[in-house]
Description:
By secondary structure, this protein is of the alpha+beta class. The chain is 41% helix and 19% strand. Strands 17-18-16-15-19-20-21 form a seven-stranded mixed beta sheet, with helices on both faces. It has a four-stranded mixed beta sheet with strand order 3-2-1-6. It has a two-stranded antiparallel ribbon with strand order 4-5.
Amino acid sequence: MTILAYDLGASSGRALLGRLNNGKIEVEELHRFSNDPVQVGDRLHWDILRLLHELKQGLLKVKHRGIKLDSLAIDSWAVDFGFIGSSGELLGNPYHYRDRHTDGVMEEVVRELSESAVFGKTGIQFLPFNTIYQLAALKRADSPLLREAKHFLMIPDLLRYFLTGEKFNEFSNATTTQLYNPLTESWDEELIRTIGLSPEWFGEVVQPGARVGQLRPSVCEELGIEPVPVYAVAEHDTGSAVAAVPALDRSFAYLSCGTWSLMGTEVGEPVISPLAQELNFTNEGGAYGTFRLLKNIMGLWVLQECRRAWKRAGISYDFPELVKLAHEAKPFAAFIDPDDPVFLHPGDMPARIAEYCERTGQQAPEDAGGIVRCILESLALKYRYVLELTEQLSGQSFNGLHMVGGGIQNTLLCQWTSNAIGKPVWAGPVEGSAIGNMIVQWTASGKLADIWEARKVIRESFPVDVYEPERSEEWENAYRAFKAKTGIE
Length: 489
């Protein structure tokens, strides 16, 4: 059985073929493409039609290989969306979550509604780019989009609509909007109306594993292919990544590591408590009735932006070269809090790191190696901090950490994470989101019994690299210094 998984990240996308043979998963990358935001005036957009074009290129490559697909599905980043008008056409290019039109909006909405009211209804972490604040920003700007909108679709929902003509909202992504109530298992109409929006825009929410149509005739005619069934999976890419964690124990901690880092544990019911609100944790939907109790961490975005800044200055580094420079740099020379608001938006990240160090009374790193070491050490130490909070909130003690996603190719970060937490790190698989996408398709078609059988198959199909903690005393001292310099308590 051959299936296609589209895995769209904030900087690149992939089309991967999955085959399930004799209890082993085989994954083949068929098509890879960049996902570049587009600045138009003061606004930052996703190039959504370019992404649709790339999805079609993946289908053409399947056709040219003579492969018959049994199904396909899409996962992507969360929170962003588009509107469909009465004609069935897209109204404008979706905004990028790093666009500045949400600046200050979260604080305004929270003042009007109160944190406890919003968290009590949704269980979602307060982040300035959450969908609720993007929509509130459009309302405050009297955007013409809101006057013409008939249907609200998040990024995978929107791309599925382009391919199938069917309009559904998928559960795991719907929960990230901070407009979905997991206790009532529906959109929170009161909350939607309170921010001045129409509940009628928000459609049926389907669970991962639901069949949501097939390729529409116009797509089949354009590409010269036969119809292919389309499934909803855990369409928030972190939801798919967590589904692919090859855990053997029901109680486990995970870190999905890429442009963003998302750390937490899997629970059967959302944890909507005063402590969860105080610690600013989130309860995002997962596959097969699970929730992801987790916290967002800025992740490798800071490093990616540094690399772009150096490239603009005429200095090109590849990631292995930067990791080598970091390894050679002085340890624990400076620390940043990766989640400081100064690092949220695109821009000159090396200058912002220097600004942060000056603000916190530290000597800023002077070269690329020092900057990268500062970023990676700070990330590893922030992971320890969030892991400790996860244990506190969940009432569990984890004997190690599962790391999945593209970031685990940075072996230095994996080792330093193990050093920082003082526990083993189990790293793999790299293509966690795509594999999680695939196992939901196979489970929906009856090829796998449930998520735990799927995780066992993943464990037997892909290598897991084990990192044991080293230099414990040095990292313990560094953790105390990190908390002191960043003010994290």
